[in-house]
Amino acid sequence: MAFCKVAFTFSVIFLSCNTIVSFAHPVGFGWWGGDRAPVSSIGSAGLFPGYYRVSCPQANEIVISVLKRAISGDPRMAASLLRLHFHDCFVQGCDASVLLDSTSKIASEKNAGPNRNSLRGFDVIDEIKAELENACPQTVSCADILAMAARGSTVLSGGPSWELPLGRKDSRTASLGLSNQNIPPPNSTIQTLISLFKRQGLNEIDLVSLSGGHTIGMARCTTFKQRLYNQNGNNQPDLTLERTYYLGLKSVCPQSGGDNNISPLDVSSPARFDNTYFKLILWGKGLLTSDQVLFSGNVGNTMQLVRRYAEDEELFFKQFAKSMVRMGNIGALTGLKGEVRKNCRHVN
Ligand code: HEM
Question: Of 25, 85, 87, 346, which one is the catalytic site residue?
Fold first, then answer.
């Protein structure tokens, strides 16, 4: 409900602001990540796009058909699945550790602070896995399913596609502790964001382009409340918030209670993968502190990158695709390491 209210309120505002972004810059080169391929050495060994060409040629088709069904029933699901891959990759690498349920030996990452009451999409992953097990038993890993689901969700939302290296194996362990340490909190400073991405082998270009994943999906009031009422411990809001946007957010997210009310991360087109996320940031309408500090943090090149992606959607799409491949390569288990789980929630 909160979603419709805010989206409606702000779509009006958005229309009246349409003219703000127009820059003229050369396209496709330079440090902001145009055509220059980022060095992609991180954990990429052994992954390649044709991994299932013989063993399960219909794997991606199956993923897409389940995604279509799931997203048509629940349009937010595309966003939730994109986020699931991110939360997997930042903890022990992209090994499907995030999907494991708790047992006597495993403390599930699902109970970590950034994930509890927040991560969604586990049932959709189960459905994809069940169909894949039917078609090609014990062949397609849960980690690869997460990577294919993230790409499929991006494409089905109107975003870019990319050649996806495959062949990840699934972990036999999870780490609740690393989930709490490695996944950036929503009130992060720009320095914290840069250093948490660096820990994964990702740079500022990856940070800004991948944050563009917030062009779809929702966040709970609890993740942005501090900005509305007490950003710096002086009972004042975050002054980088545009005023009308701020007033709208207060109506969805009261000072007391309402913690689970949700608001779109991209208020003008919450289900469409586009570059409005970056335009909104220029206008002081980034939802999370971590969104707004990419522009106002005044560190490194992130501010210029936000401008570049706001002005040039194609550039953003190209870089997002490259950075998703880089993120998807983090700590991949290949060869004899790991296993292909039969059920994504449990080790074999
Ligand atoms: C840069 C650091 C990041 C921070 C601090 C951050 C934080 C958050 C938070 C707090 C939420 C809302 C969760 C909730 O209220 O339950 C969220 C949602 C989301 N995040 Fe991020 N995130 C970051 C990076 C990313 C990346 C790299 C991606 C993917 C490429 C991503 C994709 C998403 C998506 C799609 C949603 C919406 C999920 C849904 O609607 O279910 N985020 N993020």
Answer: 87
Considering only 11-20, 84-93, 166-175, which range has the smallest mean pLDDT? 11-20
Q: What is the pLDDT of residue 50?
A: 97
Domain map (residue ranges) of the chain: 2-38+46-328
What is the C-alpha separation between 127 and 108, in angstroms, rounded? 20
> What pLDDT score does 8 carry?
29
Six-digit token pair at 134? 């039917």
- Is 211 touching ligand 1 by the criterion CB < 6 Å? yes
- Cβ–ligand 1 distance for 79 under 6 Å, the answer yes
Which amino acid is present at 277? Y
**Of 152, 140, 15, 147, which is closest to residue 71 (Cα–Cα)?**
152
Mean pLDDT, residues 233-238: 96
Q: Determine whether 87 is an active site residue.
A: yes
The torsion region of residue 7 among left (phi > 0), alpha (psi -120 to 50) and beta comes to alpha
277 in Cβ contact with 216 (< 8 Å): no
CA distance 119 to 85: 11
Q: Which option is the CATH number for 2-38+46-328: 1.10.420.10, 3.30.70.1790, 1.10.150.130, 1.10.1900.20?
A: 1.10.420.10
